[in-house]
Amino acid sequence: GPHETFGSLAFTGRGSGPMRVSVQLRYAGSGGGRWGASAYLDGTSRDVIVPVDRLQALDHQNRPAEDTRGAGTLLFVVDLTHAKPGQAGTFEISGLRFLR
Q: Which of 66, 57, 58, 55 is nearest to 27 (CA)?
């Protein structure tokens, strides 16, 4: 069930063009602290696996991601680092799985 720990997030993703998407776990118990990793998507569907131990602290935490049972929200956020002003794009996520 959702309250078991997991070691990786896996999904199939496709973008309307080349883009980076930040895959983030947010923990309500740490004041909404987020840990995340960047994934590359383009027009070809691809399987993406994000190991939890590769997640980086995105806010002001200086510790590794907590037990995943404490994660309340999963976010997929477009990384604007490589986006251009006025650029439009979409991405699709399917087959989301939580792997031990």
A: 66
